């Protein structure tokens, strides 16, 4: 049922949002002076790498020595700030879902060096497809703002945020149901209440 849902609604989403994705790609291409699509190797199910696709929100001509992004990061373009805030930059991932590399709901896929380095029961986060949204991404929807307040954002991400995300993702796997997925999608779109 989960895969059928992913195929149906990713295809529908690509049809409905194709114009918006195209417009965002044009704007991002113009502002970055390069291809407006951003491709990056991420760790997927069973630790297999795949190329995630997003709208490019950062300048290509700036040196990148970290994968941690904070609020006010100088690499982010003007349009990129809007795309990130509205999550428009995430829309091309519908293609990843359609191809079966991702699901609508599941642990967010990390760059190599995080999830693929987990051991013991924590490795279970790689037993399922990564997702566009999750309980962890809802909790840390203001992650860039949180990191910007830390004296060492890289350390805080690695030692505080990432372990907590692993814990939340393991809880999701334990409690998984199709209805839980629907709730997470609704919370993502409309906001989660604090009951």
Describe what is shown at a glance.
By secondary structure, this protein is mainly alpha-helical. 48% of the residues lie in helices and 10% in strands.
Overview of this structure, please?
The protein is mainly alpha-helical and 195 residues long. The protein has one domain (2-190). Helices cover 48% and strands 10% of the residues. The chain is built from seven helices and four strands, in the order αββααββαααα. The strands form two sheets. A two-stranded antiparallel sheet has the order 1-2. β1 (37-43) and β2 form a beta hairpin. α1 (2-32) packs antiparallel against α2. The longest helix has 31 residues, at 2-32. It is globular, with a radius of gyration of 16 Å. The protein starts with a helix and ends in a 5-residue tail after the last helix. The mean pLDDT is 91.
List keywords for this structure.
195 residues; two-stranded antiparallel ribbon; two-stranded parallel ribbon
- Gyration radius over CA: 16 Å
Give the uncertain stretches in residue-range form. none
Beta strand count: 4
Q: The biggest beta sheet, please?
A: 2 strands, antiparallel
User: How large is the count of helical segments?
Assistant: 7
Approximate strand percentage: 5-15%
- What is the average of the pLDDT values? 91
The percent range for helix content is 40-55%
Query: Helix and strand succession?
Result: HEEHHEEHHHH
Give the count of structural domains: 1
Distance between the termini: 28 Å
The assigned structural class equals mainly alpha
This entry's quaternary arrangement is single chain
**Can you list the strand order of the major beta sheet?**
1-2
Overall form: globular
């Amino acid at each position: 049922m989960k895969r059928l849902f992913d195929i149906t609604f990713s295809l529908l989403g690509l049809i409905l949002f194709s114009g918006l994705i195209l417009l965002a790609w044009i704007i991002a291409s113009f502002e970055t002076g390069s291809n407006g699509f951003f491709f990056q190797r991420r760790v997927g199910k069973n630790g297999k790498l795949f190329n995630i696709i997003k709208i490019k929100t950062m300048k290509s001509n700036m040196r990148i020595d970290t994968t941690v992004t904070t609020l006010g990061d100088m690499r982010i373009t003007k349009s990129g700030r809007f795309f990130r805030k509205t999550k428009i930059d995430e829309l091309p991932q519908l293609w990843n879902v359609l191809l079966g590399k991702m699901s609508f709901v599941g642990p967010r896929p990390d760059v190599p060096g995080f999830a693929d380095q987990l051991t013991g029961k924590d490795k279970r986060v790689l037993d399922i497809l990564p997702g566009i949204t999750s309980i962890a991404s809802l909790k840390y929807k203001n992650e860039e703002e949180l990191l910007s307040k830390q004296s060492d954002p890289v350390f805080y991400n690695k030692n505080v945020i990432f372990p907590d995300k692993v814990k939340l993702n393991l809880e999701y796997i334990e409690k998984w149901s199709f209805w839980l997925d629907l709730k997470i999608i609704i919370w993502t779109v409309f906001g989660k209440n604090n009951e």
